[in-house]
Design goal:
mainly alpha; Arc Repressor Mutant, subunit A; 2 domains; three-stranded antiparallel beta sheet; 3 strands; 9% strand; DNA-bd_dom_put_sf; DNA binding; Excisionase family DNA binding protein; HTH_17
């Protein structure tokens, strides 16, 4: 029986130990999986349990483009263009792009809320 040696470096950008483990197992498909699992065991044991239990939170998006803002507000892009040209809705320009801060859109929605009578 021939013995082959393979070395590789795998970087997991998400910092999620389970994702890393599954990636290595997928790469090792066709190799003796038990050997790979036995080598990964000590790595996973040294990983904080919180990293294995839950995925890291992604930062919430703070800005939206015209298409995203229209979908968020449930408006057509044409209506949103009209509101920006009339300065009815808070927005800012970066070059030729019109952008919206999510927090300002949420505040704008709250300011335009019609309260029910009852």
């Amino acid at each position: 029986m021939n013995e082959y040696k393979m070395e590789m470096t795998i970087t997991c950008a998400t910092g999620d130990a389970d994702h890393f483990y599954n990636t290595v197992l997928m790469i090792a498909k066709g190799f003796e999986i038990g050997v790979v699992e036995s080598k990964l065991g000590p790595i996973l044991q040294n990983t904080p349990s919180t990293a294995r239990a839950s995925k890291p939170e992604r930062p919430q998006k703070t800005n939206m483009d015209m298409k995203e803002a229209a979908a968020f507000l449930n408006l057509s892009k044409q209506t949103l263009y009209k509101y920006t040209s009339e300065a009815t809705i808070p927005h800012f320009k970066v070059g030729n792009r019109t952008l919206f801060k999510v927090s300002e859109l949420e505040e704008w929605l709250e300011d335009h809320r019609v309260k029910s009578h009852g």
